[in-house]
Q: What sequence folds into this?
């Protein structure tokens, strides 16, 4: 992250949510330089977020698949999945505008609520699959084709070549160096 997180400075009245990396679903928020538990949000903000959740039928279906039924637990998890990345873009601006973002929770590809509860990763308007995301991270840390093949469990490099070609098309990149730069710019690695 090249810029400070939203809500970090005492003069920044925007709100930034961020996930507890040790406990899936646990969320905090920060505004004006002060960190709070999710449940300490002002009632008006909590009501607004609750209305957003209850109007999202896909998310409610995803929670049923995840076995989460309590409204308070759903509300915190919904915001964890859609706003839990610590970024410089505020999740709720000082004037109340809400923004969702892609959150890498570590459960992509095996969560029953994936792309129902959470925001999918889209780059240039293109949906990035779990396997493409996994490959993006490996390119971003500088692995070559042979290592990516092994890490992703492919038998042949041709499968990785095909996957990376799809990624290049979606990201509008000419080579792996451009992909790695894009991955860094997006904060994926």
A:
């Amino acid at each position: 992250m090249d810029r400070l997180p939203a809500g970090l400075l005492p003069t920044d009245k925007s709100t930034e949510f961020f996930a507890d990396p040790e406990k899936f679903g646990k969320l905090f928020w920060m505004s004006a330089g002060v960190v709070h538990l999710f449940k300490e949000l002002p009632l008006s903000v909590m009501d607004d977020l609750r209305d957003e959740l209850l109007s999202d039928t896909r998310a409610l279906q995803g929670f049923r698949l995840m076995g989460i039924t309590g409204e308070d637990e759903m509300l915190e998890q919904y915001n964890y999945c859609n706003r839990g990345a610590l970024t410089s873009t505020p999740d709720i601006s000082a004037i109340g505008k809400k923004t969702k973002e892609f959150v890498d929770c570590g459960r992509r590809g095996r969560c029953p609520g994936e792309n129902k509860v959470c925001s999918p990763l889209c780059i240039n308007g293109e949906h990035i699959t779990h396997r493409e995301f996994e490959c993006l991270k490996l390119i971003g840390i500088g692995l070559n084709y042979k290592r990516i093949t092994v890490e992703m469990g492919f038998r042949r490099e041709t499968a990785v070549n095909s996957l990376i070609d799809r990624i290049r098309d979606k990201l509008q990149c000419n080579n792996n160096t451009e992909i790695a730069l894009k991955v860094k710019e997006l904060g994926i690695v």
User: Anything to note?
Assistant: The chain has a mean pLDDT of 91. Strands lie at 16-19, 27-31, 34-37, 122-123, 126-127. The chain has two domains: 1-120, 122-185. The longest strand covers residues 27-31.
